[in-house]
Design goal:
Chain A is an all-alpha fold and 280 residues long. In chain A, 73% of the residues lie in helices and 0% in strands. The relative contact order of chain A is 0.16. Classes of the chains: A mainly alpha (280), B alpha/beta (322), C alpha/beta (328).
């Protein structure tokens, strides 16, 4: 039974999911095609004039190096979205694998894996990243993605493990065992599909996290993205010095981050509902 | 006997995305002082919602439909405000539920929950309440009440927890006790104990008991009268012996025929074919007709309630479906 | 336990024991829970053994250890000529085809994210019962056998009622063509009006396919309907075994008598003796010494012997009873 308010909430969620898809697809399309039509994000047409407010020629204005903020936001989308997508995928694969293995096999396997995860969770991720970034002075984008991905799965693995422990005691898992299904089959056909819900939540939270993390690291000036390559976080970092006089240089990449994270969260919620056969 | 609790044309509506459904549809029954009425039906027939609507503890999405009256001693409970209802709940009408684990608060001891219930409705001191609580524990057959008093729900077995629930329900000497599947979660030997206690307490306190169950077995020999519910409606009401010996409604007949027995000739069970319909897909007319072996054209219309004999009523078009 | 006329036993269980180690929270001390404490039984081909007892008596653990869903502490389980407890790895997985289980909970027993056809087809695929291309056809046959429409294969479990789900679970078990099925309270969670459907279906399948069942139930009336032989279990022990008709008409163990008298019969005229046991089931972690039932026993001859010496099953009348004073 569903109440009226709950019903309209469901409706909102469904349309919200589509809104998220439209926004994200639009964002990706613009990131792919946009740079072809827009001015070179590195070009500095009028460096003497400095930061200019939004105008017809530069709808998002220009930064203090007179670069077009719109074209930088657009090409920054490529970097930020790519980093987020790759890092989150890596995190999910690692988190799901460790969670499934620990939860399904249990015993000492579980104990060892989860103590390792506990240990990793005890160290703040930012600290870990800063450490790594400091050790490798020249962290290019690919290792940067690997590092973010490899440090982002601890929570996911706990989530998946908890879910596996819950599902493992359900009779349908015992039925599969009684049918003679191999462990790999039970994990693949029964456990994994039933952990899709928490995995998706982890993924959507992860995308938001990674974008913000990249922004944060870039803001601190230690990220994998080096100037003049634009990423959203990098842009906010660079706009900080002129925040009072030219806020548009930071606001637009900030808005891009907020919109993306929101879109991804909406998609995640809708997907989770959709994947549940009860709502199909 | 005049009726203590008089429920007339009780309707419960649920609002959902798909529209409004009516899981309880014009249910009427009376309960006299000192009497046990069993409300029997399968899952989803609306029996628990009926019980909850008496105390107006319905889920938020549900509401009691217009025209329904629930009179306790001649006073209608339906239009009462929250404050007045609170005085009725636990005070004049008490309720016990199927799952005694979730209906007890895990962080308080059994004793403190009983004393709290006593003090919620009566102006008594702590010591008096404690004495009364111990007395109640004794009354519901808890051995060594002094040590049980200070135990937490998780330290008690299912049967003991249900006894504590009964003690709480009794704490304010209610006129009516609603027992919603009180023994379904318990083992048969413990079930027998609990039913015995309920019966004894009903007699000693002169309470009226509304026993809600899916099990015709526990009705026999425990209830004075039985009301059989199917798909939101009462299809038959009769004195217990009468119902078991001369069931008038085809659903009651089929239900009795489908139950495996311990005695009598061993023969193949005769099941009711089909499944219990959901409230959003209740058939028109007599709701049992798609599963009824005697269904005919007229069953497309709702049959009126007909008196079979004194106190025996049924809603079926057939005079004697055999 | 088997009558002379009975066919040869398919399942032979001897002295099955399952103890769990329960760790204390703080100390390294462990507590031993005697879930199953030495039970023996046989089930002839095509027959049913009913296993009755209250929750926590160990009846489900018996089933799970026999099926190797849990490892027995000791004892032997023979299935035909196969030593079930000795099977390992692939041998065990291949052997699982021959023994299946039907669960109590019709909601948890099916993977909510698997279509009914996939669920029933899983066993067919694992054991290559039929060539891959014939799987859908076989699924349809199985659905028909349990009384469901072939279109059910494309739907998800949540679209079905409890009784229908139970049929789906039965079809899944039948898919691998087992000889033996454990029915673990298969009708307890169902509505009264559909219980009979499922009981009849199980009986029909047994007759048609020559299946053997271990039928676990707490309801003796259900057991009467399905089982030729019955074992009554209490705190990890069998307290009485024998032909079902004898157990129901002339029970010798006080616990069987109490259990029988506690069954609610929908017949107010039946003037059966009502024995209401006092107290609860003791914890299997701390079973009473001597006879496990002595804490609740009402036998007039109960004495010191019951507190110290555990009675073993011995023939009394037409059943075997574990009570020192069963004759009186």
């Amino acid at each position: 039974m569903i109440t009226r308010t709950e019903a309209s909430f469901h409706h909102w969620r469904r349309s919200g999911g589509w809104l998220g898809v439209v926004v994200l697809v639009g964002m990706i399309a613009v990131a792919l095609v946009g740079p072809l039509a827009l001015p070179d994000p590195a070009s500095q047409p009028d460096i003497v004039a400095g930061a200019q407010p939004p105008s017809l020629a530069h709808p998002f204005g220009t930064d203090e190096l007179s670069r077009d903020v719109l074209s930088r936001v657009v090409s920054g989308a490529r970097i930020s979205l790519a980093i987020a997508a790759l890092a989150v995928t890596l995190s999910l694969v690692l988190g799901a694998t460790f969670g499934l293995v620990a939860g399904y096999w249990g015993g000492w396997v579980d104990a060892v894996l989860m103590r390792l995860v506990d240990g990793a969770l005890a160290i703040p991720r930012l600290f870990l990243l800063l450490l790594l970034v400091t050790v490798w002075d020249h962290l290019t984008i690919v290792p940067f993605v690997l590092v973010i991905g490899a440090t982002g799965w601890f929570g996911t693995s706990r989530l998946v493990r908890a879910e596996v422990l819950r599902i493992k005691s359900e009779p349908f898992i015992q039925a599969a065992q009684a049918l003679g299904a191999k462990p790999a089959r039970i994990v693949r056909r029964h456990l994994l599909p039933n952990t899709a819900g928490p995995l998706l939540v982890a993924a959507t939270l992860g995308v938001g996290n990674v974008i913000l993390l990249e922004a944060g690291l870039s803001f601190l000036g230690v990220g994998g993205v080096r100037p003049p390559t634009p990423s959203w976080g990098r842009m906010i970092f660079e706009g900080k010095s002129v925040l009072a006089t030219a806020p548009w240089a930071s606001i637009f990449p900030g808005v891009a981050i907020v919109v993306t994270v929101l879109a991804v969260n909406l998609i995640g919620e809708a997907l989770r509902d959709h994947l549940d056969p009860k709502n199909a | 006997m005049t009726s203590l609790l008089d429920v007339r044309r009780l309707t419960v509506n649920f609002f959902s995305e798909a529209g409004t459904v009516t899981p309880v549809d014009e249910v009427s029954f009376q309960l006299a002082k000192g009497e046990t009425l069993a409300l029997v039906g399968e899952s989803g027939c609306g029996k628990s919602l009926t019980a909850l609507s008496i105390l107006q503890l319905l889920p938020r999405a549900a509401s009691i439909g217009p025209g329904s009256t629930i009179e306790l001693d001649g006073e209608d409970l339906v239009p009462m405000d929250e404050a007045a209802l609170r005085a009725v709940r636990g005070g004049r009408i008490a309720m016990i539920f199927q799952d005694p684990m979730t209906s007890l608060d895990p962080v308080y001891t059994a004793g403190s929950q009983i004393t709290e219930a006593i003090r919620a409705h009566r102006d008594v001191g702590k010591r008096q309440a404690r004495e009364r609580a111990l007395q109640l524990l004794e009354e519901v057959g808890i051995p060594d009440p002094l040590s049980r008093f200070d135990q937490y729900p998780h330290e008690l077995s299912g049967g003991m927890r249900q006894r504590v629930m009964i003690a709480i329900a009794l704490s304010c000497e209610p006129q009516v006790l609603i027992a919603d599947e009180p023994t379904t979660a318990l083992d048969v030997t413990v079930q027998a104990q609990i039913l015995e206690i309920l019966d004894r307490l009903r007699r000693s306190h002169d309470m009226a008991v509304l026993l809600i169950t899916h099990d015709l077995g526990i009705v026999a020999g425990r209830a004075d009268r039985v009301a059989v519910m199917y798909a939101g409606r009462i299809v038959e009401t009769a004195p217990t012996d009468r119902l078991f010996q001369h069931p008038a409604h085809p659903y009651t007949q089929a239900l009795l025929a489908s139950v495996p027995r311990l005695t009598g000739p061993l023969q193949r069970l005769s099941p009711i074919h089909g499944t219990v319909p959901n409230p959003d897909a209740w058939p028109a007319g007599c709701r049992f007709h798609p599963r009824c072996p005697y269904a005919f054209d007229r069953c497309q219309q709702q049959p009126p309630v007909r008196t079979v004999s004194d106190g025996h009523e049924t809603a079926c078009w057939l005079e004697s479906p055999q | 336990m088997t009558a002379p006329s009975s066919p040869p036993p398919l399942v032979r269980v001897r002295d099955l024991v399952k103890h769990y180690q329960r760790r204390g929270v703080l100390r390294a001390s462990t507590e031993r829970v005697r879930a199953v404490d030495g039970v023996s039984f046989t089930i002839p081909t095509g027959e049913t053994l009913g296993l009755v007892g209250e929750s926590g008596c160990g009846k489900t653990t018996v089933a799970r250890t026999v099926l190797r869903l849990e490892e027995a502490t000791s004892g032997s389980v023979r299935f035909g000529e196969v030593d079930v407890l000795a099977l390992q790895g692939n041998d065990l997985r291949t052997f699982r085809r021959r023994m299946q289980i039907i669960f109590q909970d019709p909601y948890g027993s099916l993977n909510p994210r698997m279509r009914v056809g996939q669920a029933i087809g899983e066993g067919l695929r694992i054991h290559r019962v039929v060539p891959k291309r014939d799987v859908p056809e076989r699924v349809a046959t199985l659905l028909a056998e349990v009384g469901l429409d072939a279109s059910a294969a494309r739907r998800y479990p949540h679209e079905f009622s409890g009784g229908q789900r139970q049929r789906i679970g039965i079809a899944r078990s039948l898919a691998v063509e087992p000889d033996f099925i454990v029915c673990d309270e298969p009708v307890s969670a169902l509505d009264v009006s559909v219980q009979a459907q499922v009981i009849n279906l199980l009986t029909d399948l047994q007759n048609r396919r020559g299946l053997s069942y271990l039928f676990i139930a707490h309801d003796l009336a259900v057991i009467r309907q399905v089982a030729q032989h019955t074992a009554v279990m209490y705190l990890g022990h069998f307290v009485e075994t024998g032909p079902t008709t004898e157990i129901l008409s002339r029970p010798h163990h006080p616990y069987t008598q109490a259990l029988l008298s506690a069954v609610p019969e929908p017949d107010p005229s039946s003037q059966r003796l009502r024995i209401v046991l006092s107290g609860d089931l003791p914890s299997p972690a701390h079973p009473p010494a001597g006879c496990p039932f002595h804490t609740r026993c009402f036998h007039p001859l109960k004495d010191g012997r019951c507190f110290t010496e555990r009675p073993t099953l011995r023939p009394v009348g037409a059943t075997e009873t574990a009570c020192h004073y069963a004759e009186d």
